[in-house]
Structure formats: structure tokens, C-alpha cells
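Subject: mismatched residue count in predicted assembly?

I count 820 residues in my input, but I want to confirm that the predicted structure covers every chain. Input:
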Amino acid sequence: MSLLFWGSPAHGATVEEIKFVAQEMACLCGTCPTRPLDECNCGFAGQKRDEIGSLLDAGKDKKAIIASFISRDGLQVLAVPPAEGFNLSAWVMPFAVLFGGGFVVLYVVRTWSQGKDARQKIVAARNDPPPNDDDPYRSQLESELRDRDT
Amino acid sequence: MNNFGNFTLWLTLITAVYAVVTAALAARTRRYDLTLSAERATAATFGLSLVSFATLEYLFLTDGFGIHYVATHSSRDLPTIYKFTALWSGMQGSLLLWALILAGYSYFAMRVTRNFRGPLASNATAVMAAVQIFFVGIICIYENPFLLISDVESVAAGFVPADGQGMNPLLVHPAMAIHPPMLYMGYVGFVVPYAFAMAALICGQVNEEWIRATRRWTLVPWFFLGTGQLLGGKWAYVVLGWGGYWGWDPVENAALLPWLTGTAFLHSVMIQEKRGMLKVWNIILIVLTFTLCIYGTFLTRSGVVSSVHAFAQSPVGPTFFGLVLAIVLFSAYFVWSRLDLLKSKNEYESPVSREGGFLLNNLLFITATFAVFWGTMFPVISEAVTGSKITVGPPFFNSVMVPIGLLLLLLTGVGPLLAWRKTSGRSLRRQFTGPALSAIVTSATLAALGMGDVYAIISFAFAAFVVVAIILEFHRGALARGSSAGESYPVAIVNLVRRNRRRYGGYIIHFGIVLLFIGFTGNAFNQDKEAALKVGESAEIAGYTLVYEGSDETQNPLTVVIETQLGIFKNGERLGTMWPEQHVYYKRSDQQRTTEVAIRSSLREDLYVLYEGQNESGVAFFRAYVNPLVMWVWIGAWVLTIGTVIVMFPDKREEELRRRVGMAPREARA
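Triage response: the counts match. Full output below for your records.
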């Protein structure tokens, strides 16, 4: 029995070496939802993997191969937006929303908690027994001191 | 027949306009005769939509190829069931299906609220009829399915081709037959809670009874939308042959967006029911959910983003975007103008509470919604800003959504364990000890066994947490019933669910979600290999040996079927046989080929093999995948379905509450 595998008839590059490059690039055949080149099994993806294999055989490394594809077809060959320039916002924005939303939620619940505390103070003050002291100023002072301390 | 179809379409539009006018007037004047008239118009709109739909179906079933839409989406040799489903395989028919389902929802919502007529019900009818006008108007003006071929192409009047162009072979599958109707039942169904939300704002009746009544109307579309997506995933898995079930395609994402916000609403509404809080936020969630439904339709039909699922670019795109803007502006106006009515006594005592859990739940769901939206639209945004095209593929979505998803998974277990207002330290220890221990043991065991994927370990640990938490909830509840009602354990479990469907049905739904996550986690361990084999040769993948044993070719009226046979071995023992196929639609001008994947499923993993063709030397090309835990996705889908049905099942106590929505029953005739 003999085994024939992906990439071996035409290239010296191994399947894993081709996959290492292909997984960072998108299949632009238009019939799959821009899946990575190593996953898509359409003819277009197969041709691109062959091309990667040839470039690996020619001694180019991953960075150079991807750069050559970009120079020919543009940044759309990358499977994900590069984390630079405006495209960095693709990565940043979801987490900005998470943390920003978190701060908003914290602010709102803090407001609710303060509102509740204020209402509790008013109720507590209304329920306080009247001071027995005849001196009106002492009574007022003691009442204000109680409010400050609660 | 096309004239009859056209006539019913335009008549549907007229009755929808009549329904809006009479319903709005009925709400304003509270005249009983106008209320009745609006109800009859709603029923007529439904009836006429049904007739239009049935007319088009008749044309499909009788091979009416004089109609352009029928000729371009059907053929004589298509099996009858697929002639039926071909109606919604294209833009015009799918819009007609949408209009029919919308009319159906409007009619049934009207029927249910009939016993308590009033401004709330009348305004809701008016809102739904207004949306109906948009859709039927679009069909009549831009995407009429009853146009003759001679109306569209340069042929002689009355030209009828001998046969139609047929349906895309990829759509000739049972899952594809029901996937669109399910999705539309979801998308369209959110119009009901939206209409009632707007009606409540218009009338100024923003009380808790309204929200309880609309909760079931939200559950129904939520269920259909989720089920529709899972069905689509199943179809993609067994038909498309790329080894997966979710590709983060823009149209897939468009269906996910309202499901995420709908899920947030279903949780957030509990705070309003229990504590009277978050009224404004809940209204915003309903508006956002419905807006995203319409936005999803816009994405699918506008060509703004490229997608394998999208219909061809159409002039209706900008019109749909206009509807999105109109909904946002209309809703924003009423929310803003009724803010004083929506004020609630918001008291928040502790973050370690059910309220805190729900707030975090909403934050995560909204973040997930934004992340999917942002990733879907980013290619368009980036090109507009930088001038160069960019790809946002599955690796982006997986990178962003996995951490958010894991947090949501954990919250699925934590949230129900928290008490309303404040959870005491004693309660925390009692409730969390078991689940936390199970998570720790699970993660330690997996790490010790050599599992290297950190996200996978976290996912399984969180899954264990949630499962144990759910089991303990059922156990404690059953013990309590056993001691108070004297019921046996099994009977107590059944009665727990029967007596408190929302709570325990909800737990079953959560359990289904856990199973889905277990299935998703298996993706981290997928393996695939391509092999080129002559008869007798073999390939190995993940411990399996696949031996190519030969092929056979047969022909039927539609296709040439090339069937290959693979013997499956493991450790030298034959496990069985698989038959991956290729179908060639030889009558089509493009000779389209489809793969019929062979799948050998077990709870542990799927062995998934497709046949890609062969060369002149008789070398056959195969691609094999081993996908661990996929079956748990489908099992989880079933459990989710069962849980949702339990929650949706009518509750007598809730029925009484629903009767209190709107005005008092039956106003006297003038």
C-alpha cells in the first residue's frame, strides 16, 4: 500500500509547512465564507496552496510569502485584519465596548445604590424619636450630627 | 394565473393600508366599529397573503414556466416537495414568504388580544400592518414574483420555455427545505413584541403586565431563529463538505445578531417583572432586536457584504436601509417622549445578586452583538476609510467571541445561583461549593491528561460548573417537594418542572446551551487530511485507517452518482464501511457537482469523509476529517428545543395575567 498526501507530489514542502502559511490567508474564491486557505477544499484554495508550496521550495519564509501575496492581491488575502493603522480598531473595538460598557454599568448601579442610600437616610431621619432636650439649638445640632454619622 | 396573483398582491397591500388607518383611528377614538373593522382587515390581509402564496405554489407545482420566477427556480424533474420549497429559494418568493408569515403573526396576535380590545391592541395592530405595507409594497413594486418571462426578458409575449432552469442543487435537501421558513418565523416574529412595545409607549401603558404578555411572543421567534440557525448549521455540515457547521458568514451573522439581543431581553425582562427595574433598557432591547431583524434582511438582499447565502444584489437594498432608519427614528421618538413614564425605582443593593448577574449577562450579550456586527461590517467600513479591501474571516470571530462566550457560559451557571437583591456569604458557600469543585477537578484532570488547549480546558471546566449547578438545583427542589408534598423523587422532579415551567424549563435550556458549548469546544481538536488513493490503498487519520475499496457509477433522471466505498479500520479491526459520493447534475449547463459527505458519528467524534473526484489513472481524491464532539451540538439543539417548549407551554397563572393586558374586555358598542 502506498500513501499519497496533500502537497507531496508537487512540492518538497510538507503539509505542515504549507498549512503554517496557508492558515493566515483567506480563500478568495467567492464560494466559501472567506475561510482560511488551509481549511477550504475548493480548487482555488488548492492552487494557492500549491503556489505556497512552490515558494517554500524556492526558499522563501512565511513572512516573505505572505508579503508577496499582499503585494499582488492586497490586504484582503489575509484571513484577519492586520493589527495596525485603522484596522487595529477591528480588534480593539469589541473589548473597548466590553470595558466601556462595564464602566457604564458600574456608574449606573452606583447611582442606584446612592439613590437607595439617600432614601434610606430620609426614612431613618423621619423615624428618629424627637430629642428630649429643651434647648432647640442642641436638638438641632444633635440631629445634624446623627445625619452626618449615618 | 399571474394576473390573479398580481391582483391578490395589490389587494393585500390595500387591506394592509386599511388596517393601519382603522387600527390607528380605533386606538385614538376607542370606537368599537373601527376596532372590529381593523381586525377584519388584519384577517383579510392574512387571507389574501395566503392566497397569493398558494397561487405561486400552484404555479411551481404545475410547472408554470411562463412565470419568470418559476422558470428560473424550478424544473420539471425537480421532486414535488422541492418544487414546493423552491418558492422561497429566490428573492421574490422569500419576500412573499416573509409577508405571509408577518400577516400570520399579525392575525394570531390580533386573535389572542381579542378578549381585551383597547388602544394597546389597536396600536399594535397598526404597527404590524405598517410593517406589512412595507413588505407587500416592496413585492408589488420591485420584486413581483408573478411577472411573465416576456415582462423581464426580450422574448415574444406569451413565451413559455419547455423547462425551467432548476433549483441550485445545494438547496435540494430536507434541511434546506425548512431552514428558511424557520428563520423567517424567527425574524418576522419579533415584530409582535416590537409592535406591543411601541403600542405601550404610544398609549402610555408601560406596565409589567404588558411585558409579561409579550414575553411569550418573544420566546416564539427566539426559538425559531435559534432553531433555524442550528438547522442551517446541520445543512452546512452534511451538504457543503467543508467539515464545519458555522462559518461566520455575514448572512449567518445577520441571524445571530437579533438572537443575541433577544436572549439578552429574555433575561433582562425578569428584572423588570421582579423588581420593576430597567424599563427603558428593555424597550431599547426590543427595538434593537427588531431593528437587527430588518438589518439582517437588508444585508442579505443589498449586496453590501458578499456572502454565499446572499440573494443577488437588488434595488430593494436602499429601501430596506430606509426602513431600518425609520424604525430607529420612530422608536427613538416614542422612547424619548415617554421617558417620564418609564422611570422606575431603581434600587441596587449588591453586585452579588441576581440583578448583578443579569446586568453582566446583558453586558456580555451586547458586547457579543457588537463584536459580530463590527466584524461583519468591518470590510465595508475599512474600505470606506482606507480605500483597500480587507477580509474578516472566521479566525477573527473565533478570537473575539471565544472569550466572551466562555464568560457567558460561566454566567449561565452562576446567575441562577444568586439570590435577588443580595446573596449572603452563607448562601454563596452553599450554592457554589459543589459546582466550583467540579470545575476545579475537571480542569485539573484534563490538564493532567495532557490537554494543552487552555480555552478548551476552561470551556470544559465551566461546563462542569454549570451542569453540577443545574443538577443541584433540581436535586434541592425535588428534596424540598419530597419533604413538603411527600412526593417520590422522580415524581417530585416532574412536578418541579410542571409547576414552575419558567424556572426549570430555563434550566433545561441552559443545559442545552452547555451541550452546545461542549460540541463547539471539540473544534479545537479537529484534524483533517487529504489523500489520493488507488483501489486497495489506504490513508490514516487520528487512529482510523481508510481503505479505498472501489467506486460505482449510476445515473438517475437528475444526476450521475459516483459512489466510492471506503473500509474503516481501527487497530486492525474493521469498524464498518463509508460511501462518500459525488453527484453530477448533468442536465444543467454548468454540470454542477455536489458532494455527498459520508459521516460516521459517535458521541466521541465524527469521522467525516468527502470524495473530491478522480483522475484518468483511477486515483481517487478524498478529504477526511475527524471532528470531536460534534454530535453534542445536535443533542444540545434538541435539549434546547425541549426546554423552550416547556417554557412556552401555557401556564394558567400566566394566562390570567395576560388577560389584564390592555383595556377592560369588550367595550360596549356605540
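The helical segments of chain A are 15-22, 43-57, 62-73, 88-127, 136-149. Marking this ticket as 'not a bug'.
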